[in-house]
From TrEMBL:
SUPFAM superfamilies: F1F0 ATP synthase subunit A. It is a multi-pass membrane protein. This is ATP synthase subunit a. It comes from Brevibacterium rongguiense. Key component of the proton channel; it plays a direct role in the translocation of protons across the membrane. GO terms for molecular function: proton-transporting ATP synthase activity, rotational mechanism. The keyword Metal-binding does not apply. Coiled coil: none annotated. InterPro entries: ATP_synth_F0_asu (IPR000568), ATP_synth_F0_asu_bact/mt (IPR045083), F0_ATP_A_sf (IPR035908). Belongs to the ATPase A chain family. Its main location: membrane. The gene is atpB. It is found in: Cell membrane; Membrane.
């Protein structure tokens, strides 16, 4: 667990103090910017393989996440935010399986919490902009068709959901997946090292099982990195759309 709380590496004792995980975040951000900068400079009418992959990914975010969840008109306005969230989460998640980095930049609470707060304020601001403050609060808290006595029970539940549970679950879903994935990888490869180099001869065979398990968990981590990026971006789009909609 101490890998999630590494010591300072640069600028110790200053507001710009950086540890290993913060450096990994910077590397992931620079790599992501470089990929898009290089891709944008080399656009061709007949796309290369790399350009095709980039265009397919961007179309996936635009169509399958933004437009399907928000409608075309709203998706045009929020596409920069949804696209940034998707690729940022993906880049920070994937560092967990990259050699010499070996830990996800999203496995410490700062980044998941920051993204959750950005989504949180985005959907509240959009709801107020579209419906007005009182219209938004009524739309968010009062369920249509529910008898008045039940509203006294449902309004606090809806308030708790909209103002506390949604950002909390956005943060924890991403954070916990990345923590658990890292711990599983450490467990598999630590066990492999033990069986191959420290265990007695009769137990060395189990190292093959643990290294196979580590390979499987690595593949699983790639899938989870993609899935968590998709889920976070999708929920951001859904929450914004729900906040701005006059109907539940």
């Amino acid at each position: 667990m101490m890998e999630f709380f590494p010591p300072a590496v640069l600028f110790e004792g200053t507001p710009f103090e950086m540890n290993r995980i913060m450096i990994i975040r910077v590397i992931a951000a620079l790599a992501l910017c470089a990929v898009f900068a290089i891709g944008a400079r080399r656009l061709k009418l007949v796309p290369s393989r790399g350009q095709s992959v980039m265009e397919m990914t961007l179309d996936f975010v635009r169509v399958s996440i933004a437009e399907d969840s928000m409608g075309k008109k709203m998706a045009e306005r929020f596409l920069p935010l949804i696209t940034t969230i998707f690729f940022m989460v993906l880049a920070l998640n994937i560092t967990g399986i990259i050699p010499f980095l070996n830990i996800a930049g999203s496995s410490v609470v700062g980044v998941p919490l920051l993204l959750a707060l950005i989504v949180y304020f985005s959907y509240h601001i959009e709801g107020i902009r579209e419906l007005g403050l009182f219209g938004y609060l009524k739309n968010a808290l009062v369920l249509p068709g529910v008898p008045l006595p039940l509203q006294f029970l449902m309004v606090p539940i809806e308030a708790l959901t909209k103002f506390v549970i949604q950002p909390f679950t956005l943060t924890l879903r991403l954070l916990c997946n990345m923590i658990v994935g890292h711990l599983l990888l450490v467990l598999c490869f630590s066990a492999t090292w033990f069986f191959f180099f420290d265990a007695s001869l009769g137990f060395k065979f189990f190292g093959i099982i643990t290294i196979a398990g580590g390979f499987f968990v690595t593949l699983l981590e790639i899938l989870i990195a993609l899935l968590q990026a998709y889920v976070f971006a999708l929920l951001a789009a859904v929450y914004i759309r729900q906040a701005a909609s006059a109907e539940h």
